Amino acid sequence: MKITEMNLKKGFVKVVPETLDDLWHLYNIINVGDEVYAYTTREIRQDEKYARSKRGERVSVFIGVKVEKIVWDKLLGRLRIHGVICSAPEIVPTGAHHTLNVGLNSPITIVKEKWAPYHIERLETAKKTSEKPVLIVAVDDEGYAIAVTTQYGVDVKAEEHVKLPGKLEAEKREAAFREYFQKVINSLRQILDVKSSPMAIIGVGYVKNYFAKFLEKEAPEIAKSVLDVKGVNNSGVAGIYEALRSGVLAKTMKNLRVAEETMVVEEIFKRLGKGEHNVAYGLEEVQKAVEFGAVETLTLADTILRESPDEKRLLLEQLMKDVENKNGKIIVVSTEHEAGAKLVSLGGIAALLRFALPHST
Questions:
Q1: What are phi and psi of 77, to 5 degrees?
Q2: Between these two residues, 115 and 19, which has the higher pLDDT value?
Q3: Alpha-carbon dihedral of residues 113, 284, 343, 268, nearest 10 degrees?
């Protein structure tokens, strides 16, 4: 993310999103009621009153909208920001509705009445981030899946099931494996920057090791990127999520946001499963923990911040501020991956505590 200007006293920040992760950050920064300014195109009629049957001319204009709805279109790689026009040239009627389509390298200005600390932190994180995505290849004798990690979760790029000859048909099975593995390599080659991305190979049983050796022989330029070959209990995409949960890819993913989010949510569920009291979940229980200064790590689902009404969001922001003032850590968890969905099941907010609350003992 490129931050071209920031003036918090006047309430605005000018940014240029450079990656899909940047668009994800903006999706979580821009709230209903904010104003967003950008260049866009709009159909202009010379005479709105008498030109009903004629299409107007589409021109480029710089306008601002007061945000009513924001949609993150991951497939098309853009944000759709819909709202009421609050600022525009004279040829555009204010008060009308308009949708800004914000793509990569599209400069925008965001205006808020008040910028929360976690908004600024998110901007700064996006500005500094230069981590490479990690390719995870899950492969066994039932099929394969290939996923790429992002700051918002896991993006599954390919998945295919296979049916191989049985072990009694040794020659056919060997030939089928070669054909199957070549198909996996072809899929890898189609994924952008595969040669420069760190890679992990996971799977059930021996097939993952068999594939890793095949890769070294048939595609050494890709094999150089393999940092880990690990066993899991599930096939395909389920195996990828299992690897993230279990921490077997900690070496490969040690600097990735999605790994940090997954580990903290797993720790919450681990403590709950053991019946430990140094954990809290749900708004009411977490509020009590914050009041006692017990919160070591506060986790919130991104949706609870993005979709809550103003009153609740202000309450959550105050909780975050109180935790920070007492040297606690805050992690906003993406609901685009499994850990975020699990946190939502706890009400979207939970905390790891330094000590058990008095009433829990």
A1: 65, 55
A2: 115
A3: 120
The model scores a pTM over 0.90: no
Sheet holding 108-111, edge to edge: 2-7, 12-16, 108-111, 35-44, 57-73, 78-87, 97-102
In this prediction, residue 45 carries a pLDDT of 67
What are the chain's domains?
2-128 (2.30.30.870), 136-246 (3.30.420.60), 263-360 (3.30.1330.30)
Instruction: Annotate 28-85 with three-state secondary structure.
Output: HHCCCCCEEEEEEEEEECCCCCCCCCCCCEEEEEEEEEEEEEEEEECCCCEEEEEEEE
Inter-CA distances, 73 with 81, 127, 154, 281, Å? 11, 21, 15, 31
Mean pLDDT of the chain: 89
Sign of the dihedral through C-alpha 208, 211, 215, 217? positive
